[in-house]
């Protein structure tokens, strides 16, 4: 079975308070113009042999706490992803899934079967502005269903939003945050420019740290924890 196109052997930042390895799938059903993973989103590059991955996981079991599955969008690969995670769990690793929330059925299935321990779901924009940011037609009900599934589960989670001035105003971020009020953890990830940005370098502007602090002040009462990254 071939699923992954990228592998970061060790990460101290992708799984909160844990040391993990990160695996990246290729392909995504969104086209967020600020995305840093253009090659992966366009599904370029070679597959990594799955037996190499399991060999790695077997050897590193004492050094790593978990496996973070990122992308691209991993939930596009329904059964393949389910089967891969089932095999990883047999090695007794924690599993974190990064998702854009477009496959609530798979998400629920993974949670119900205790196959994932942490979910980081991107919430891209206020619901009525979603398609402007992700650049494709979507069924917003799937995003709302995923939010409900995660909030009503007993696994650890975060909702997070990449913020840049051209795509989300301060008011947009506050509106978005209000729509997920009462959630456990909300993270604003400041946009970082670079050569691999999907729409090209120099198109988008990050927020100033003080501006994000200011937004944090307005929304922090709505969550157990609010964080700014970047
Ligand atoms: S930011 Fe995430 S959801 Fe958006 S295109 Fe990139 S991989 Fe897909």
Automatic annotation (TrEMBL):
Transmembrane segments: none annotated. Its EC number is 1.97.1.4. Gene3D superfamilies: Aldolase class I. Keywords: Iron, Iron-sulfur, Metal-binding, Oxidoreductase, S-adenosyl-L-methionine. It is an enzyme of class 1 (oxidoreductase). InterPro entries: Aldolase_TIM, NrdG2, Radical_SAM_PqqE_MftC-like, rSAM, rSAM_sf. Residues 13-230 form the Radical SAM core domain. The keyword Transit peptide does not apply. The keyword Oxidoreductase applies. Coiled coil: none annotated. Signal peptide: none annotated. GO terms for molecular function: [formate-C-acetyltransferase]-activating enzyme activity; iron-sulfur cluster binding; metal ion binding. PANTHER family: GLYCYL-RADICAL ENZYME ACTIVATING ENZYME MJ1227-RELATED (PTHR11228:SF27), RADICAL SAM DOMAIN PROTEIN (PTHR11228). This is Ribonucleotide reductase of class III (Anaerobic), activating protein. It comes from Caldisalinibacter kiritimatiensis. The lineage of its organism: Bacteria, Bacillati, Bacillota, Tissierellia, Tissierellales.
């Amino acid at each position: 079975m071939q699923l992954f196109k990228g592998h970061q052997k060790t990460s101290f930042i992708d799984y909160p308070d844990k040391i993990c390895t990160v695996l990246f799938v290729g392909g995504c059903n969104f086209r967020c113009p600020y995305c840093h993973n253009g090659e992966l989103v366009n599904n370029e590059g070679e597959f990594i042999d799955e037996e190499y991955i399991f060999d790695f996981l077997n050897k590193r079991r004492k050094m790593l706490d978990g496996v973070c599955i990122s992308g691209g969008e991993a939930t596009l690969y329904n059964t393949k992803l389910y089967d891969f995670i089932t095999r990883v769990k047999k090695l007794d690793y924690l599993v974190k899934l990064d998702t854009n929330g477009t496959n609530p059925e798979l998400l629920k299935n993974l949670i119900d079967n205790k196959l994932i321990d942490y979910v980081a779901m991107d919430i891209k924009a206020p619901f009525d502005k979603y398609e402007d940011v992700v650049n494709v037609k979507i069924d917003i009900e799937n995003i709302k269903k995923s939010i409900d599934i995660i909030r009503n589960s007993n696994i650890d989670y975060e909702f997070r939003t990449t913020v840049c001035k051209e795509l989300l105003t301060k008011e947009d971020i506050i509106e978005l945050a209000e729509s997920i009020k009462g959630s456990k953890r909300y993270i604003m990830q400041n946009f970082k420019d670079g050569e691999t940005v999907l729409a090209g370098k120099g198109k988008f502007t990050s927020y100033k740290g003080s501006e994000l602090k200011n937004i944090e002040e307005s929304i922090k009462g709505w969550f157990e924890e609010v964080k700014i990254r970047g």
